[in-house]
Amino acid sequence: MNQEIIEVIDSEQDETSQNWYNLLEAGSLKEGYDLDRFVEPPRKDFNCLICLGVVRNPLECSQCGILLCKKCVYSCSKPQNPFFSMSNTTPKFNCPICRNRSAPREPSMILKKFISVLIVYCKNRKRGCGVCKGLGEIKNHEKECDYKVIRCANHGLCSKEGSKIDFITAKCPKIGKNTNQKSKLVCSEICRKVVVMSYLLKADKIEEAIDQYRLALEQLSQTK
């Protein structure tokens, strides 16, 4: 009878522990934020004890309360089955400090807020960006940052990469009454004409595409 009770309790704990683990996101997670990104040194208890950065997607040990990045929690967890397979078995958390085996928990909303308002430099700082924002806001800025690295939209013929601010806009003409004007970023006037030409060809605007092709050839000859 006692053995049956123990087995039921273990089963319930295993079921609870599965809530913190998501196999689909495991490969996309990142380690903590580098300390040199912060305008002022953050509190040490915000640092992940595994990667040593400020915790990203933090989880908390339910026993000793340390914070770890979710990616690092995965890395310090061990399978419950020695014949472990990522496809069908959930690893069991193993706290690197207190060795607690209980499932980690989400930190309080207040603690998450404290971390989200820490001021950091844009990741494109070395390329010239001077923007500083809270951790909770900086990602939205970085998506549109003028200094982020992009590739020329003329993918078929050009592989040039560089800061967004150094590229020019190729505006593709409207095709039809309900079509919005499309814009792409390219590295040069030649690539601008090639991108517009390709767009016109797809829209069966052959004559206009030939005009763009001719202009691109003229531009190329002048460049040489």
TrEMBL record:
Does the UniProt entry include the keyword Iron?
no
Which controlled-vocabulary keywords does the entry list? Metal-binding, Zinc, Zinc-finger
**Superkingdom field:** Eukaryota
Single GO term (MF):
zinc ion binding
Q: Does the keyword Zinc apply?
A: yes
Q: PROSITE patterns this protein is in?
A: ZF_RING_2
Task: Please state every residue range assigned to the domain named RING-type.
Answer: 48-99
Biological processes annotated in GO? regulation of canonical NF-kappaB signal transduction
Put simply, this protein is called: RING-type domain-containing protein
Which species is this record about? Stentor coeruleus
Phylogenetic placement of the source organism: Eukaryota, Sar, Alveolata, Ciliophora, Postciliodesmatophora
